[in-house]
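tl;dr need the bound structure. longer version: we got a ligand (zinc ion) that a collaborator sent over and nobodys looked at where it sits. i said id run it. heres the input, straight from their email, havent touched it
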Amino acid sequence: MQSEFQELKTRLIEINDIQSAAGLLYWDQSTYMPPGGAAARGRQSATLRRLAHEKFTDPTIGKLLDTLQSYQENLDYDSDEAGLLRVTRRHYERAIKIPSDFLAEVTTHTSESYQVWTEARPANDFDSVRPYLEKTLEYSRQSANFFPGYDHIADPLIEPRDYGMKAADVSQVFAELREALVPIASAITSQTPADDSCLHKNYPEDKQLAFGMKVAEKFGYDLNRGRQDMTHHPFMTKFSLGDVRITTRAKEDSLGEAMFCTMHETGHALYEQGINMEYEGTPLARGTSAGVHESQSRLWENIVGRSRGFWNCFYPRLQEFFPEQLGAVSVDTFHRAINKVERSLIRTEADEVTYNLHVMLRFDFELALLEGEMEIKDLPNAWRERFEADFGIVPPDDRDGVLQDVHWYFGLIGGSFQGYTLGNILGAQFFSKALETHSEITDDIEKGEFGTLHNWLKENVYQHGSKFTAPEIIERATGQAMTITPYIDYLRRKYGELYDLN
Ligand code: ZN
């Protein structure tokens, strides 16, 4: 069996090499590539992705998995070998159900749709992108129907990103969260918003980036295995466990932009850098789900990076970077500014209290569209109505309404948003467990030391990569299933100090 196992692993690593090359092409496209490279780059990426898909769905992989079935049954569930066979089998069963012609068709369609969207959004022209979105919805339904036997049509679309969660589970957690969250959000937004003018002076970009990287290194980001570059829509990407990169963007009139982007992407990078090196090149060498991944970006960006303890230590250093801009601004004022809560139109710019309401709106709409309860043509109006009900404000146009997020215009409808809110919930759950085990973490943060927290996360979450599913990781790390209690407690405690919540 050892030789079959080795052969499977060799093939998986080869497929991973192709995927990593495609990842590098994407990174280059999003950072340094001149615009003239776009057409050829699209073709090159598609070629590599097709190659990887063909190699992975080759019947030889299936035969190797079948041969190794009995070997797998005798392995300890927790062993790396068992994990690799489990995860490979799961990905394989999924991949062979999607015809490659269909994949190619969807890829071509979504890149056209994306092109149209890039012009439709600034022009506030939903009608031009509507037929594309209608086609996307058809493809999304078709894609789900390659997996008959689901409870909800969204389940097969949620699965590749948040395996182990179904539409019904997400809806239930979201309903609980909504009930707890809406009163907190209303209590805060009915008060005078924090004054954040201190963040909107002139902040030279190079200094912003230097400060951000100082924080990233302090968090534990290993620059021997990482680097940061500039882009339009920041992301983290990995070509190997020895090369985990982040990207950011900066605005000279907005201090928060680059700093919190860097902290956010650093959280994602810490997860990938923390994976067991033995998993290099295999399907185990990546974060286990969108929700758990986002829990790490949110934990480092919000729970640590927007905390009072963190700034008690780092604010004097930030003032040294920007003496003219911040010399006369107190840490109190600064802390309130970076935690300003307001009813706003744009999801990606929303604060940590109202953010989840943006996500829930999109998740509910995805379900309604897939179920056939809502039609694409109804989206702009439905968006305005729901937004008014949830936020008390109406988007003045579709540009800042239904056209704002790239997801539906560059991919399928279904499964693309829930991970963000699951991440907020899970970030708090992991953090509170780490704190319960190591109460010194609070003092450490005030001293600018993050080793104990980082090590706890590495041991309980990061090192396992995809070996365990998200529900397994949550249970193992925190001793219970996903719960919103730590997140709501965290919000009440933190915002209770900043605002009157009674
Ligand atoms: Zn993220």
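gonna send this back to them w/ a short note. Residues 315 and 331 are 7 Å apart (CA to CA).
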